[in-house]
Design goal:
Length: 286
């Protein structure tokens, strides 16, 4: 029963982080005229990055659109590019959703911009199908050695692609951003920004769905109805399992700490679970 409770709590934590990440990827744009062209608006906002969903809100007096991007970087580009501008012949505002969880979103984004782990990583949006990843890599490699190119999966449009480019040093990333932002390559107008989030965070959020199982539906009897000997035996087994897990975790964290740079402030470890009740991948941020 205690294992089941732990799995449920980890699953809830996973879902909470996914929800917060989802809100960081969302923007609202409007107001638009009643007869505005939805296709042209979507085409305009697609230049900021891969869109996972696009819809019109039905609870406002004037039409607004809700845009869910794949990564927070795209949402930030959309706010900076289109807020206060004219789109589809309408002067619009572009803003993030307002909720208790999103009140400190701007503060979090500013801190992420200064995160040392992302200083050598840039985010590139607006890559059309006519521009291959080979051509893009060749162009961006002029600014320094590229360690990795990570594509962002676009669920709704295979013609547009985004990617993270990781350089060997921050200077190369800054030079690439300053030079390539706003330039055109084979009909692709590129938006190049500093990466805000670790590129593996998006992959983690997309993995494993949480399926809650009520502890009352488990086969195990409630702890209070079990005999004293049975409870003692189960606790002893659980303690041994926990000790083995912690010992393994200590060794792995030790290797991780020894490989980290000296200016790292903290490590965040979220445990993963793979069982019949829920499947959640682990996550490490530092």
């Amino acid at each position: 029963e205690s294992d089941l409770h732990m799995e449920v709590n980890v699953g809830r934590l996973h879902e909470k982080m996914k929800q917060m990440l989802s809100e960081m990827c969302m923007v609202y744009a409007g107001p638009f005229c009643k007869d505005f062209c939805l296709k042209s608006v979507k085409r305009a906002f697609r230049r900021c990055g891969s869109i996972s969903s696009f819809s019109i809100t039905s609870e406002t007096y004037q039409p607004y659109v809700r845009i869910q991007y794949e990564v927070p970087e795209s949402a930030l580009v959309a706010v900076e590019t289109f807020n206060g501008s004219i789109v589809a012949e309408c002067l619009i505002k572009v803003q993030r959703p307002m909720s208790e969880k999103s009140l400190d979103c701007d503060t979090i984004l500013k801190k992420l911009e200064r995160d040392v782990t992302n200083q050598a990583v840039i985010y590139v949006a607006g890559i059309r199908q006519s521009l291959s990843m080979e051509d893009l890599t060749a162009k961006f490699s002029k600014f320094g050695h590229i360690e990795a190119v990570i594509s962002v999966v676009n669920k709704t449009n295979a013609k547009n692609k985004d990617c993270f480019i990781k350089y060997g040093n921050p200077e190369s990333a800054l030079k690439a951003q300053a030079t390539m932002n706003g330039t055109e390559m084979k009909k692709s107008k590129l938006n190049v920004q500093r990466a805000l989030t670790p590129y593996h965070l998006q992959t983690w959020a997309a993995q494993g769905s949480y399926v809650a199982v009520s502890p009352s539906g488990a086969d195990t009897l409630p702890l209070s109805s079990q005999s004293s000997e049975s409870r003692t035996e189960r606790l002893s087994q659980c303690e041994q399992v926990v000790k083995n897990v912690i010992r393994t975790l200590d060794r792995r964290v030790g290797r991780l700490v020894r490989g980290m740079s000296n200016d790292t402030l903290c490590i965040i470890l979220l445990p993963g679970i793979n069982s019949d009740h829920c499947s959640v991948p682990g996550l490490c941020l530092f």
